[in-house]
Amino acid sequence: DGGITQSPKYLFRKEGQNVTLSCEQNLNHDAMYWYRQDPGQGLRLIYYSQIVNDFQKGDIAEGYSVSREKKESFPLTVTSAQKNPTAFYLCASSIGTGGPYGYTFGSGTRLTVV
Amino acid sequence: QQQVKQSPQSLIVQKGGISIINCAYENTAFDYFPWYQQFPGKGPALLIAIRPDVSEKKEGRFTISFNKSAKQFSLHIMDSQPGDSATYFCAASISADKLIFGTGTRLQVFP
Q1: CB spacing of A104 vs B46 below 8 angstroms
Q2: What would the pLDDT profile of B68-77 be if each residue is shown by its tens digit?
Q3: Could you tell me which residues are beta bridge partners of residue B20?
């Protein structure tokens, strides 16, 4: 079945540590996105990529980094510069130009600072 | 102008009742309006979507009503069930550009 796989489901980070969240899709989608969701809050865009080897900052990119070396993969690194990283992180993908334009979301990674 | 305003923030409905969630936008270039449903600990899933050339779209118990002149659209859930209890997000985009999400509505349906 086609879909988006996020791993790990739960991740614990120590203070000052960088961690990388994985996002893989086999939908042949061009565009991929990372969102942060805090308890009871909406979805805030961190980074997005509409094509391989290209990505743009979203609304809350500070303290995060991404890469898009392959169409299928869009990993997110939460760096030590992100002072409040505890949140639920969601990866999504879409076909991109030409539509349909809906997103397919992964099941999320819950990151906790310990 | 890129915002999508969603209300209410939370909604409590009796089983069998109608749940109504509203969204408003400013950018008249938006041409795609989806609704997403999210259960706790899961990613959002596309529920139903509409384009501005139609005023209403129905899929089962879920209906989107679209008012282009008022720049508003709403989700109606008929015969609401406890299993519909979730957070609902509206969104809007200009074709293939990134979606702009509303802030979400937490729906609780009580038996």
Answers
A1: yes
A2: 999 999 999 9
A3: B76
